[in-house]
Every structure is written in structure tokens, then in C-alpha cells.
Amino acid sequence: MKHVVIIGGGFGGLWATRALARANLKITLVDRTNHHLFQPLLYQVATAGLSPADIAAPLRHILRRQKNVTVRLDEVTSIDKSQRQVIMRDGTLRYDYLIVAAGAAHAYFGHDHWAKHAPGLKTLDDALGMRATMLRAFEAAEREPDVDVAKSWLRFAVVGAGPTGVELAGTLAEIARHTLRREFRNIDPTRAEVLLIEAGPRVLAGMDPGLSASALKQLRKLGVSVRLNAPVQAIDAESITLPGETLPCRTVWWAAGVAASPLGKVLCENTDRAGRVPVERDLSLPGHPEIFVIGDLATLAHHGVSVPGVAPAAKQMGNHAAAMIRRRLAGNVATPFRYRDYGSFATIGRMAAVADLAGIKLRGVVAWWLWLAAHVIFLIGFRNRLVVLVNWASSYFTYQRHARIVSR
Amino acid sequence: MKHVVIIGGGFGGLWATRALARANLKITLVDRTNHHLFQPLLYQVATAGLSPADIAAPLRHILRRQKNVTVRLDEVTSIDKSQRQVIMRDGTLRYDYLIVAAGAAHAYFGHDHWAKHAPGLKTLDDALGMRATMLRAFEAAEREPDVDVAKSWLRFAVVGAGPTGVELAGTLAEIARHTLRREFRNIDPTRAEVLLIEAGPRVLAGMDPGLSASALKQLRKLGVSVRLNAPVQAIDAESITLPGETLPCRTVWWAAGVAASPLGKVLCENTDRAGRVPVERDLSLPGHPEIFVIGDLATLAHHGVSVPGVAPAAKQMGNHAAAMIRRRLAGNVATPFRYRDYGSFATIGRMAAVADLAGIKLRGVVAWWLWLAAHVIFLIGFRNRLVVLVNWASSYFTYQRHARIVSR
Asked: Which site from A126, A248, B200, B237 is most exposed, i.e. has the minimal number of CB atoms within 10 Å?
């Protein structure tokens, strides 16, 4: 029986695995964590609204009934294309077909030393780290006798005004203005300053300019200070420097750049600037019809096809790679991947969002309710959906965020 | 206005703080974490049934309406009794009255090198560490080619058959036999071996012998191998040694001993074997009527009074210390602390528990339902109660445990 190895249990890898459920194949899904992560809600973990278990489910559990799959917790370190082997920390796997869906991490555009002071958001560990620094900043301000230092603890900067940056900044503003109000004795959390810093001329540059303008208005209404055309010049432990000013600031979050997994470089030499692998129209690696590269790790830009780095695109690519393997087993030829764009959302805060659904543009309350419904429906597993709803309903009415936990 | 400093936001410290809500005092509550922890359910976090936020609530949030309290996130390193000062990592506080409720950690009875291989359960970090080692053990067994090594990954040992040890062993057996069944391809999790190792002659030695016998029977029915009269001789990364046998075993959890906080030694020289401070009948430190020591850090044994290290005792002591401060402010004399024992529970697993409620002895299903009701009622905060109920109801019907998350 042919052996398919799938690297990565995100949207691309998991959807590919499921799409091969009825194929007469042996499948091994390798991930370095034990869970599938619902990444669109990761910012809620970073901002203490949800717990890790609310947006993650064990891959083994999701796939327990799919008997042709073995799930393996391990980290892929290399791929030997000539021997058709995947090399992991704790062993190797021989494959007949390989699907690489290893995703992406943050990029600092040559400023890797900023990483320490301005963490990005890709994993549950990243989110828990952000949550701890945010909560500790308010605690440090509360016990700080020096007023200027306290003020620098109460300034939060989010770099990059894409969907993640907008979500983080909007939620931070809400936490400072509502959640923590009245809980401190020496500081007034409502006077915290949340900066959203963007190098380009508008927020949500990937969306329609009208929606960008609406998002900007909604952000300002929530109390976020938006700085446009402001490329970051420097970041250290105590300040952030923009063109013409250095602001004392102790908490900086990075939402400005994405770099594909280092496995991209293992697969081919001509990765693009973001480390993505240029693939054939059927998503296979040029010269290797047995290897498919999907999700954030792949690019079709050289074919003039633009596929955004979002969950629906990864799922569609996972389905397509699986279909190509089934076709090949049946002796049929490959077909090109076509991205179907059903629209996009960006949430900003309580009752604040924008949406572009196949040309229908929505903003504010309506967009927000649609965003909420879509995300609850897509969360994997009944339990998660119900608990997330309970958490959200309770947050909505009380402005509380239940996961405000800092350990030592 | 007099200043009361309270060290520790556990049951003792939090109840003392609340009992001083209407007193004309300034109160500072210092804790090294930002939350109150519902410790009786900590084993549920260690065994992936609940998330940290389900059993913890920010102290600031709990006390937001009590205007005479300042909550401070800091770690107390020393106490200067002559200057009446508490010394912390980030500052000092002068007090007129001091309540020390710093709790306890685990003790290895002179075998501190076991700590690395056999972690204990006191904090959320401990619980998350245990959860990760448990989940990783099954993953390691799944990918291990050597059958004997795989077997050692599937042997779990819990040392100490007090309430925590019994809860951990019972839940581990349930996870292996039900939760993980059918999710692995190379191993059969139901063949995992859970050992409960006790140096003394019976489990739950603090309870009635009839209940101990019932608990033993219920543990065996759940599939736990109980070893009585088996003091541990040695623990290393790959094995545990009991009298007469060395068992290959990769996961050992410690529930055998408790040592009071090192602040005990700072307060007095004659702490007992467990590091607890012998206090006066009114819970004050001998020679220092302005200092009270409560909870797991205090002992009244030298007065012939036995107070168990449980949450209700800590709450009662917190209330008493607060009452003593109020009496002193009003010019009244101190009164002795009296422990009211309303009974005790020990849960073992699904539908398995024992209870001794003021002499009425219950076992099995009835004890379990009472345990469940009592713990849900006592959980702080409406949201937690509801989410915990949803989680439990869903676990109950599906045997699933939602917090099965391992990060890298």
C-alpha cells in the first residue's frame, strides 16, 4: 500500500488528511504539537478571552475514526527527496507521496534582534507569552512609584495593521477601557495608550479602501491611536522609535511580517522573499510530482495567481493536493488549483468589524455578528463551540475576560 | 489608618482579606501570582479535564469592589519583624498587622534529587507540567519501536495515597482505559499500568478505615494497581524502586509529602518537621501579637489541636485572624481558634468517591455526586461554575478531556 506522509496538522494538512479518508493508502500525519489550532481565534488567547483548550483539539482525537491515519508527534528536521524520506528528531519515514503544510512564522525583515522585545503570534505558546506580558505590564505599572516609568508600562504598541494587528489593538483597547477599569488602586487602566503602527498608508491593506476607512474609524472610536505611514525604526526593551519620535513603551507586539517554514529552503533553492516555495499549478513541487506544497508555505504568484495566507485557502489547497494523489492513483492527469474567494472578515472589537463577502461590503455591528457566527460554526468540535459561546456571552455582558492568569 | 499586609491569596489570605472588608483599615494583599487558585480541582488541570482559567480567578477581579484593598503582584523574600516590614523583590511594605498565609510546597524527605523525576502538584505551572509529561508519555510509546521501552512509557506511578494521590491515580486509569482508547495505532492505551504507591498500610490514611477499604476497592475496579506498605527506595528518569523490585517507569508523580513555605523559617526558629510555625491559640506568632500565621503554614499541634491542611481549615483560620485584628482595634482581648470539621471527601474517578460528613459515611455514586455538587458550588465566580459544569457534562457523556494540549 502506498504511504502518504503529511507534514503539519494546520488547516492545510488536516484537510488533506481528511480528504484521503476513503483512499486505499497508509497516511502518517506528523506535527510537532499534538493539536490542531484554530488560528483565526489565537488573538483571543493572547488577550485572555479564551483558553488554549477552547481553540485547540488533539489531532488524534479529531482523526480517531479515520483508520488509515497514524498521527505522530515529532519535529521534521529535513527531507531527503532522492531517497523519499522525511527525517525527524525521533526517526525517519519513507514516503510515496508527500504533502508539506508546515506553515509560517513571523519575520522581522532583517531585524531579528527585535524578536525578543516584540514577539509575534503564531502558536499557543506565543499567545500565552503575550498574555503574560500584557497582564504583567499593568501589574508593574500599579506598583511603580515613578510616574513616567508607570506611563511607559501603560503604553502598548502593536506593529502592523493587517487583520491580526487590528484585532490585537482593538482588543487591548477594550481591556484597558472596560475589563480592568476599577480593579487598580494606583493607576487608571483606562488611561493606557494603545498604538497601532503601520508602515503603509492604510489599515487592512488587503481589503477594499472603503472598508479600511471604516476600520480606521472604528479603531479610533475604541480608543486606539493609529499611526499610518510610520515604518518602525528601532525597538528595545523600553522604547519604540518611529520616524521623528522615540516613545517610551514596554510592551510591543509584532504583527507585521510572515516568513514561511525553513522546510521551504529544504525543498527548493528558489523560494521567494518570504521563503515560500513556487509550486506548479497542481501544487506539486517542480520536478517532483510526488511532493505537494500547500498553505502558507506555497506560492503561485509566478503563475499570476494570488492566494492569500488564510485558513480557507489552506483548506482548499489541502483538498486539492489530496485530490491530485487520488487522481494519480487512478491513473488520471493532474488539474490546476483554483482558489475560490468566499470573502474576508476583520474583527476590530466589541460590535466592531468589517466584512467583504463576494463584493457585499459590511461594517460595524452587522459585520461583527456575522464574524462571530462564522467563527463559532467553524470551530472544530461541539464542546469547544459551546464553551466558547458561554465564554463569549459572559464576556459580552460583563466585559470580563476569564483567562487572565499569570503564573510565576 | 492602620495598615494590614496579607501574604498569600490562597484560601487563608483571601478569606482574611474579605473578612476585613468593612474594617477601617488599609489592606495590601501580596501574591506572587495574580490569581486565587481553587486548589481542590488542580488535579483536573494536571489530567487535562479542566483549563487553568476554569479553576483560577484574578485576585484583583475578586476584590475589585473592596475599596480598602490594594492587590500587589510580587514575591515576599523576607520579613523584618523588628522594623515591621515585608521585603519583596520589587519593594518593601510597612505593616501594623501582618497575616502570613504563604502555604506549602512538596517535600521529598531528604531526597530532593527525586524532584526532577517526580514532580508534585501545588501550582498551575506544576499541573501544566504534569499534563504535558502524561500526554508526551503516550506519544513517546506510540512512536517507540522497542516493545520494552514502549511498555515503560505506558507505566505511570503516583507516590502517596492521600486524597491527591488517589485522585491522580484514579483519573489516570480512566484516561488510559476510556479517553485515549482507539486513538493510537501502534499501542493500546488501555494496557497502560497505573501504580499507586503508598508507604503506609492503607489509602486515605486520614479517613475512617472502612472508607479506606472502600476507596481501595473502587481504585482496583478502575484498574489502578495499589501497592501498600511500599516505601519508595529510589526514583530516576527510567525507573522507580520499591522494596524488592525495580520497575521500568518513565512517569512518576509525587503526592507524598508537604513542606511549609520557607517564610516559616523567617518567622521563627522552632518550626516543626514539616516547616510549620507553632502559633498561639489565637493564631498569632508567639511574642508578636501583631503577626498571624494561618493555613498550611501554621500548626496548633503543640496545643493538642489538630487542624488538617484543607481549604475549609484555611478559610476558618483566615476569618479568625481577621476577627482578632478587628477585636484588637476595638480594644477587646483575643479568643482561641476553634476548627469546625464539616467532613471530608475524596474523589477517586467517575462515579467513585468516599465521604465522611460529620460521621455519616458515604461511598461510591452517592459520595461522588455530593463531591461534584460541593466543588461546583464552592468554585469562585459564576462563569467558572457554568463552564466547569459544561466541561464536566461533556466529559461525562463522551469520556473526553478537552484540555489535552501539548505545545512544543
From this structure: B237
ipTM above 0.90, yes or no: no
Q: What is the pLDDT of residue A258?
A: 87
Mean pLDDT of all residues belonging to chain A: 92
Cell of B279: 502559633
Catalytic residue among A167, A193, A198, A280: A167
Nearest to B61 among A74, A183, A390 (CB): A183
Q: Report CA Rg, chain B.
A: 22
In A190-209, the residues whose Cβ lies within 8 Å of chain B are none
How confident is residue B382, by pLDDT bands cut at 50, 70 and 90?
low
Judged by a CB distance cut-off of 8 A, whether residue A135 touches chain B is yes
**Which residues of chain A make contact with B143, given a CB cutoff of 8 A?**
72-74, 90-91
3-class DSSP string for chain A: CCEEEEECCCHHHHHHHHHCCCCCCEEEEEECCCEEECHHHHHHHHCCCCCHHHCEEEHHHHCCCCCCEEEEECCEEEEECCCCEEEECCEEEECCEEEECCCEEECCCCCHHHCCCCCECCCHHHHHHHHHHHHHHHHHHHHCCCHHHHHHHCEEEEECCCHHHHHHHHHHHHHHHHHCCCCCCCCCHHHCEEEEECCCCCCCCCCCHHHHHHHHHHHHHCCEEEECCCCCCEECCCEEEECCEEEECCEEEECCCEEECCHHHHHCCCCCCCCCEECCCCCEECCEEEEEECHHHEECHHHCCCCCCCHHHHHHHHHHHHHHHHHHHCCCCCCCCCCCCCCEEEEEECCEEEEEECCEEEECHHHHHHHHHHHHHHCCCHHHHHHHHHHHHHHHHHCCCCCCCCCC
pLDDT surpassing 80 at residue A77: yes
CA geometry: angle B102, B108, B114, nearest 5 deg: 125
The angle, 0 to 180 degrees and rounded to 10, between the axes of the packed helices A365-378 and A382-398 is 150
Chain B interface includes A60 (CB < 8 A)? yes
Question: Does residue B215 contact residue B365 with C-beta atoms inside 8 Å?
Answer: no
Contact B52 A125 (CB under 8 A): no
Tell me, yes or no, if B272 comes closer than 8 A to chain A by beta carbon: no
Reply yes or no on whether the pLDDT at B151 is more than 60. yes
Tens-digit pLDDT profile for residues B274-325: 999 999 999 999 999 999 999 999 999 999 999 999 999 999 999 999 999 9
User: Does residue A255 contact residue A121 with C-beta atoms inside 8 Å?
Assistant: yes
Q: Which of residues 89-128 of A touch B (CB under 8 A)?
A: 90-91, 123-125
Strand ranges inside B142-192, DSSP E: 155-159
Of B61, B9, B63, B4, nearest to B28 by C-alpha is: B4
Three-state secondary-structure class, residue B134: helix
Q: What is the DSSP letter of B190?
A: G
Q: pLDDT digit string (tens) for A83-109?
A: 999 999 999 999 999 999 999 988 898
Chain A residue nearest residue B407, CA to CA: A33
The pLDDT value recorded for residue A401 is 74
Residue of A nearest to B127 (CA): A407
Q: Which chain B residue lies closest to A93 (C-alpha atoms)? A: B143
Instruction: Please identify among residues 22-51 of chain A the ones whose CB lies closer than 8 Å to any CB of chain B.
Output: 32-35, 51
Per-residue pLDDT tens digits for A107-127: 898 899 999 999 999 999 999
Residues pairing with A254 in the sheet: A120, A159
Tens of pLDDT, residues A192-247: 999 999 999 999 998 999 999 999 999 999 999 999 999 999 999 999 999 999 99
Going B253 to B255 to B257 to B259, the CA torsion angle's sign is: positive
The answer to whether the CB of B161 falls within 8 A of the CB of B212 is no
Distance (Å) from the alpha carbon of B4 to chain A's nearest alpha carbon: 16
The number of helix segments (H) and strand segments (E) in chain B equals 11, 25
